[in-house]
Amino acid sequence: MPPSLVDEVVRAAGRGERRVRLLPARVVVYFVLAMVLFPECGYRRVWASLTARWPGSALADPSAAALRQARRRLGVEPLALLFDRLRGTVGTPATPGVFWRSLRLVAWDGTCVEVADSEANVARFRRHAARTTRPAGYPQVRLTALVECGTRALIDAVFGPQQYTEWPQARALLPSLQPGMLLLADRGYDGFEALRDAAATGADVLWRVQAGRLLPVIRPLPDGTHLTLVTDRRSGDRLTRWMRHGRRGPMPAHLTALTLRVISYRVTRTAADGTFRTSTVRLVTTLLDPHEHPAAELAVLYQQRWEIETAYYGLKVTLRGADRVLRSRTVAGVEQELLALLTVYQAARIAMTQAATTAGVDPDRLSLTTALHTIRLTLITANTTGPTLLAEVLLKARNLAPTRRRSRTSPRCVKRTLSPYAYNKTKGSVGHKTTVTTTITLTSADRP
Question: Domain named Transposase IS4-like: which ranges (predicted)?
Fold first, then answer.
């Protein structure tokens, strides 16, 4: 993020200075970004890290109050424009793991980010209420992102109050979908409207659907999959009545429907102690040709959807810090800080992808933790060879992850107990080694 880019977004946002200030807008933008890089530090320590190697006589020595006022004066729009300049796909055809059969793998999903407990934040973002109706300790922002699976870079992201559901936010991401993309999603998006609108962008979809969803067999395919119709509610009732009467006569005309291919398969997980568990997965896709897009490959490919969960872990834990909340106590401050968080994360992913592409290495093998530590170090030391140093550190043999990822499972459980003495509540949350076997079968529920 060179000064020319920062000056461009400052001018575009109308935040340029009319008079010379000790804290000009360009400096404040870099301060907000550094504030994200050092989440455990107060304003003064962030400023000290940002200016550690610069001559003291040539620098201002602002107070925490002055830095806070400078943030308020800067506003949200410059950070929004800066993220908009950086977001997008970063992988190229030369980047390993980004494409499958000429389709760019992308995924979307939602998550929640905890913010400071202030009256303004509670009024705007609300608290999450558990099943016991006991509210959470902190208000939460709901974030939905579209991620490039091969690089875990952010193609686009939107956020708002946590009471919003995932689909309305995902609808705002539709303009970022393009032909040549294969969108992966979980069962939270299997409604007709979501499938129709996503397919209308020209992108292909590979989504998991709920086990009880009616997916009639319109035409069986030779690989054990079949074509089905996903309809709106009115057309679904007509289609159900036609099937209930033994499919007598022609299929109802003028159905509001989308033709999809259904892939049902079983996944068996065998633990190290020999115990196993089998579950059935049902996918729907707009890739209708079983010869061009084999079902077995699509079933294995769907596991790439979890790359967005790894991206969220990098954003919320590796960068922000485990068990930390955003520090801002005002709504505008939260939006500004969250945009800075997304911007720094995206900048790190861009640098990592460029290094991986040049070396011909899969970006999955590069460590975000190592990248962030190196970025912090180059910032404190004002090292002008930062990009070169970052590439050298990331590509060291000892810093590269194995070519084959370890197969592990970790059951869902409470990670933060309400009482520090409730030791047994997190028992069993540690990952276990497993062997995963995927078998393609046509389940009885899908047979004609």
Answer: 103-345
How far, in Å, CA of 364 to CA of 354, rounded?
A: 13
* pLDDT (tens digit per residue) in 285-340: 999 999 999 999 999 899 999 999 999 999 999 999 888 899 999 999 999 999 99
* CA–CA gap between residue 10 and residue 196 (Å, rounded): 39
Question: Is the separation of the CB atoms in 152 and 349 below 8 Å?
Answer: yes
Instruction: For residue 360, tell me if it sits in a domain.
Output: no
Cα dihedral sign, 133-166-155-147: positive
* Measured torsion, CA atoms of residues 205, 206, 209, 213, in degrees rounded to the nearest 10: 70
List C-alpha distances in Å: 218 to 190, 212, 226, 230.
Answer: 19, 18, 7, 11
Number of domains in the chain: 2
**The model's pTM:** 0.89
The domain in which residue 4 lies consists of 1-86
Q: What is the separation of C-alpha 250 from the centre of its chain, rounded to a whole number of angstroms?
A: 44
**Element containing residue 157 per DSSP (H, E):** strand 153-161
* Residue 38 maps to a domain: yes
CATH value at residue 230: 3.90.350
Could you read off the pLDDT of 35-61 as tens digits, one per residue?
999 999 999 999 999 988 877 656 778
